[in-house]
Amino acid sequence: MRRLAPLAAALFLTGCATVPVGAASHPPSIDMTHYSGTWLEIGRRPMWITKDCVAGYTTYRPGSKPSEIAVEDGCHDKTPDGKLKVIHGRGELLDAGAGNAKLRVHYPFFITFNYWVLYEAPDHSWFISADPKMHNLWVYSRAVPDAAARAVMVQKAKDLGYDVSQLEFPAQ
User: Fold this and answer.
1) Half-sphere exposure of residue 127: CA atoms within 13 angstroms, side-chain side
2) How far apart are CA 82 and CA 60, in angstroms?
3) Are 149 and 140 spatial neighbours (Cβ–Cβ below 8 Å)?
4) Closest among 157, 124, 122 to 44, alpha carbons compared
């Protein structure tokens, strides 16, 4: 529990934004199958909490209610074979049935973070997520993309108005 306290603090400090602006004000409509299985973290905005964090992922599972999602976030320390660090949360869809793109996740220590899907690839193989103010941004994929596919992902983030020079791409 003590090892998760810094992660919880970081989530609290970076995820309290709730006022939508820019691209985040018009998220796409997301099929509920989006919230099942594991997504690999391909790109992200650096944060002190993700320092030395590589091979990150998020796994979604159905929750106990129709608009609830069980969330597991994890990564490995320094190398893809390093020690696994995991935190669990309970997500609630803020726009259930009307789009399913706005997920609020409650983590331990009363930490709440908003993740809004800004874009999902037509083939549902990758997506871009951000907090409502687009301060933090993540690119997720079902598989590790090649360089050309990653370039498409970065261009889409740029098209959405995000400063892609801030992105980092941790080892998978």
Assistant:
1) 21
2) 23
3) no
4) 157
Q: pTM for the full model? A: 0.84
Q: Nearest CA to 129 among 52, 39, 31?
A: 39
Q: What average pLDDT score do residues 14-39 get?
A: 68
**Residue 13 to residue 36: CA distance in whole angstroms:** 27
Determine the Cα–Cα distance for residues 47 and 15; give it in Å rounded to an integer.
12
Which homologous superfamily is 2-166 in?
Answer: Calycin beta-barrel core domain (2.40.128.20)
| Residues 71, 11: Cα–Cα separation, whole Å | 14
CA 13: distance to chain centroid? Answer: 16
The reported pLDDT for the residue numbered 160 is: 94
Q: Residue written as tokens 């009363």?
A: 110
Q: What are the domain boundaries of the chain?
A: 2-166
For residue 39, which phi and psi values (nearest 5 degrees)? -115, 135
Is 23 strand, coil or helix?
helix
Q: List phi, psi (to 5°) of 118.
A: -95, -30
